[in-house]
Specification:
The protein has 381 residues and is an alpha/beta fold. The longest helix is centred in the last third of the chain and has 37 residues. Bound molecules: pyridoxal-5'-phosphate.
Length: 381
């Protein structure tokens, strides 16, 4: 028996409940997980799984884990992840890493500043451990001034970069400035970089910047958004030596470790990506994005909200149309996207007129969504 919400429900509690509705449908453009087809190189790795299994059984877990770290972090330019006695904890997913982080944080503070908007399971997990959330808007974060007194009043500042759903990336200079401020005010700096793989602007070495600043930091990395590995993925919970949180202890309350087979598979997918697969993925997402943008161009009151985004999701401003009405009209044709209210965790009405479309899908799926969305938008002018 499933406990997932029913499709008649327009007032669901969170984004994941909207995503459940789409899971069994071929035209699922709701969740941000990777669901495109395997490339020939990736299909070759899946064919190798029995050999990877045998190899993973033979080798010490520590060795399998270190090889997976190296391949993944270096693929994305994160060479300094091991410097200065940092710690890397492997979790089943980034949400599990997030839960461990949140429980740890709640032992040392009661408040956190969090980027706004962002994927709602981040505020939900933080609220779930009793933390008070203070919104940090993207404008002051990326281009303006962060309120020092507000920052001083919290125990941690949390930034999703690239952000979901906006795709905005914290530049190297802005990260250095924020890290310096956190060092000065003794505020923990935490990053969720789950969408890092899609945008080369997020491939500068964040760990070098964080280590150089002297701030206390935590980073949550995620292999699950990049490759269509049927939810076999790793969330890495990385922290500075002096982060001041009981991460390892709380990790041990929850899990012993992740599967060496999954670690080995992540290593092989990383190697494939380093050998050209990542550039192919970028081209693939850009192609799906161009197709969607091209088909929506010229529709009255329809606008691409994040023209510079390279993330595997696209936000569309629907003008006066209600996102829930458009979502429901698409759902009636068995096509699923996400209305954006819940991303705006502090002020949900800011998402009343926008829709998020997942782009890590087969191109034919994006084409079918595009066709349905065009007709819904033309009908609802
Ligand atoms: C920025 C971000 N972090 C974490 C997660 C959670 O990922 P998972 O469901 O694989 O745990 C998501 C989910 O989409 C996300 O968008």
């Amino acid at each position: 028996m499933t406990t997932h919400a029913t499709s008649s429900d327009r007032s669901l509690g969170n984004l994941t409940q909207f995503e459940y509705l789409a899971l069994n449908n071929p035209l699922n453009l709701a969740d941000g997980h990777a669901r495109q087809e395997l490339t020939p190189g990736q299909a070759g790795i899946i064919d190798e799984l029995p050999a990877l299994w045998a190899d993973s059984v033979k080798r010490p877990v520590e060795e399998v884990e270190a090889a997976a770290h190296r391949a993944y972090f270096e693929l994305l330019g994160q060479r300094d992840y091991r410097a200065a006695d940092s710690q890397v904890l492997s979790c089943y997913s980034s949400s599990v890493a997030m839960e461990i982080f949140a429980r740890s944080l709640a032992t040392v503070t009661d408040s956190i500043m969090l980027v706004h908007p962002t994927f709602d399971n981040i505020p939900d997990i933080l609220r779930g451990v009793g933390l008070r959330l203070v919104p940090l808007e993207e404008e002051p974060l990326h281009a303006g001034t962060i309120d020092r007194e507000q920052l001083r009043s919290v125990g941690c500042v949390f930034v999703t970069t690239p952000n979901n759903p906006t795709g905005r990336v914290l530049s190297q200079q802005r990260l250095a400035e924020l890290a310096a401020l956190c060092a000065e005010l003794d505020v923990l700096l935490t990053l969720d970089t789950s969408f890092r793989g899609f945008d080369p602007a997020a491939h500068y070495d964040h760990y070098a910047v964080l280590n150089a600043s002297g701030c206390r930091w935590v980073v949550i990395e995620d292999t699950g958004k990049l490759w269509p590995t049927l939810e076999l993925k790793i969330g890495w919970l990385v922290s500075s030596a002096h982060a001041g949180l009981p991460l390892a202890r709380i990790y041990s309350d929850i899990l012993l470790g992740v599967s060496p087979l999954v670690l080995s598979m992540v290593r092989r997918f990383s190697e494939d990506a380093a050998g050209g697969g990542l550039a192919d993925l970028h081209r693939f997402i850009a192609g799906n994005r161009a197709q969607l943008r091209g088909a929506l161009a010229g529709l009255p009151e329809v606008r691409i909200i994040d023209p510079d985004s390279k993330a595997s999701v696209e936000r569309i401003d629907l003008g006066k149309r209600s996102a829930l009405d458009v979502w429901a009209a698409l759902r009636d044709q068995n096509v699923f996207a996400l209305p954006c209210q819940k991303f705006h965790w502090a002020r949900p009405d800011e998402g009343d007129h926008s829709l998020r479309i997942a782009l890590a899908r087969p191109t034919a799926t994006v084409a079918a969504l595009t066709k349905a969305l065009r007709s819904v938008l033309l009908d609802s002018r």
